[in-house]
User: Fold this.
Amino acid sequence: MDLRQPCRLLPAVIATFVDFPSGFTALVAGPVLKTLPNGSRMADEKRTAPAAGGATAAPSINILGQFIKDLSFESPNPMAALASFQGKAPPMNVSVNVGGKAVSDTDFEVDLTIEANAGEADAVVFNLELVYSAILRVEHASKEQLHPIVFIEGPRMLFPFARQVVANVTGSGGVPPVLLQPIDFISLYRQRLAQMASETAGKA
Assistant:
């Protein structure tokens, strides 16, 4: 896959209220994903690439800068909207997308997009969209290693910060804070590769 072209991962995500409405409880959101049979994580895998003089060096990834690229939050009347559900948890949807592009031979921009909404058409609790981005520097990586490093390790490094932004914004917006569960970006990446392979085979 060409790193110059955005790649979007689209996991299915669910969210529920915990012990709603007793106290100021939190929304807990998590992806519907299967655990890898071997429980492997990319950070645990050995990855080496040829370096000058024939020596080998492990790929390195560093965050040069991270920032909120875009953030929007709407909650027209959260108290009335929550009251309309008569003590029940309102329906909620969360989706997570990953995009990336090369800005130089070693630097890459990664966008982690989180969209969340709760309520119904006539009783909107909130709508949120966050694009949390970073510039990553990846060195000593082969071409085969580069794409998964950017699209797996990149968003995994950004996720804790984006998760905190979502919790803070929703909590300050008059609704229970949304707490996103950890996401298996390895599974998402492999699912996307399988989907692209299937689409390519279907066009053949």
